[in-house]
Amino acid sequence: MVPLGDYTKTEVREIANRFGLHVAAKPDSQNFVCGDYASIIKSEPNPGPILDNTGNILGQHRGIQFYTIGQHKGLGLPTQKPLYVTSLDPVRNAVITGVKEDIYKDEFIVSELNWMAIEEIDKPMIMSARIRSSHKEAEAIITPIDTEHTRVKFKEPQLAITPGQASVFYQDDLVIGAGIIQQVS
């Protein structure tokens, strides 16, 4: 059952605008669930250490599934400088933290490639790339490693490149291809 029937999102925004509702200009949500993600994660939380980037224990987390790279809120750590999640280490069950500069990276490896506008790439190409739906496209050199992996190197470091997220490649507003971020350098 769809609560707004056959209305499109654009039509709903137009109606909201006519009635002067502030939600008419509200950005689209990228979340597929309202509230705490714990409602859809069926694994038992496994607490573990929160570490700084040199391995010092700063505190304890409630389960790495509740954290994401770039996250600042919810760490519960009393520090002089704000800390951000820089990586998750499932082998050690650890949340690794650092300062904001630590979450800016410029290079990563993509797999599960899906080329749409071309058959494949066989040499480095300059394209624009996105690392999540709300990310502004940024210039990058896309370099094939083998038939299953591609290296992406941004011209400028980008915030919170996250393994498991999709990266999409563009040229002149045309989607060239996409893949899943595997490893961030």
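[next item in queue]
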Amino acid sequence: MGLIREIANARRYFSATKAAPDITFYSESGIYYQNYKGTIEAILDKSEFKILYITSDLEDPVWDLDNDRIIPFYINKLVPFVFPFINTKSLVMTMADLNQYHVKRSTNPVNHIYMFHAVNSIHLQYNHGAFDHYDTIFCVGQHHIEEIRKTEELYNMPPKELIEVGYSWLEDIVTNYKQKLLNDNKILIAPSWSAGNILESCLDTILEQLLPLHYEIVVRPHPEFIKRQNDRIKEIKQKYNGHPNFFLETESSSSQNILESALLITDWSGIALEFAWGMLKPVIFIDTPKKIHNQDYKKIGIVPIEDQIRNQIGNILKPSYISNIDQEIKKALQNKEKNEEILKELRNRNIFHWGQSSEVGADYIIKYCKEH
């Protein structure tokens, strides 16, 4: 039944492209709608275009929208068979590694646009060649411009169109944060999913220190960790779910605990930049092994932004000093207000078009579609 439904959706999509041949968005998971939301709304507000929205998630928030100018289609297993034939002017995606694995570029003259869902650099935590097959990149900050251009030069690649856009989800976090009440006792533990991350290496030690105290502890595994390490998730549930101060959050589409928590404990997750720059809240980094998906990252000669600003936006704690984590938390919360101006200055220096990124991205897509 599922495959029959997908076939019907694929046929419906290709039929729709005849009436609305301009813009397609693709979402691997419902969590990425938050990255598209501002740009989609700006396109609908500033133009007459319809948006075709392919999603591989039946829980995607797009299904709840009531707007006849955004048309959703559920295509999951058939994505590798559909994408080579897409024929809209622009295809917007948050999926790295286009053309490197099962999902290929369209064979038609489509502008493949990549929209980042993290502030992180392109050459450390992404695979080599992760963005090589895109035509246009919506860059979050100057670091993306420099890293992509240096990569193109190093590997003798044709230049892509790099658009200075910014990061609309970070702006949404600020807006949503202002509407939430901060819980001074809530601490969020949100690690990456790379080998040796907090959940694999030292979660038990951290919880032994914090659960007896007055804090509410929310553990939020990365979606990829949930997918790949489900046995470990079951262990954590079995061991801690009965504790009154513990909550395991596996619903990644919700940002409530991100907004309400007073402090973040992480390792190499991109959420640190969103937590610090979006809400100006303190971060403690557990110094687990670096998350490296590209072993050749040093070749381009640029220090990744994750390394550059790590000790500027938070405190770094070696695993051997976790027994002191309660004191680090106390110190970080006491210095919160003093550090807010530093975080604002760093944010403004490192992110393009603060407060206007959705409009900038939408303007580019509208202009491109009108000119082609």
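[queue empty]
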